[in-house]
Specification:
seven-stranded mixed beta sheet; mainly beta; globular
Amino acid sequence: QVQLVESGGGLVQPGGSLRLSCVASGSIFSNYGISWYRQAPGKQRELVAAITSGGNTNYADSVKGRFTISRDNAKNTAYLQMNSLKPEDTAVYYCNAKRSPLWKYDYWGQGTQVTISS
């Protein structure tokens, strides 16, 4: 079992930055791929960024060049650095941890609200 706790959300003006954190407990963090998803009101949850256990990353086209995902296995923590924020980045951001077999090892945090507004 893995518990995930996100933090770092808040209200920021357009063009600003935020860093989200996802702290994991309960299992061997380094074995898991970590992803950040977001869900805006009335929209489906979408993948924002992901990092594998080996450190490979991928990003949604909408955030490429603005967001950076990283992990510190010694601290059991993953991060999402968000720069040049836009109003359309407003959403609840969720951390996800998964590893094989996915039907068994797929965990979510409670989410953190990010609001971009002037």
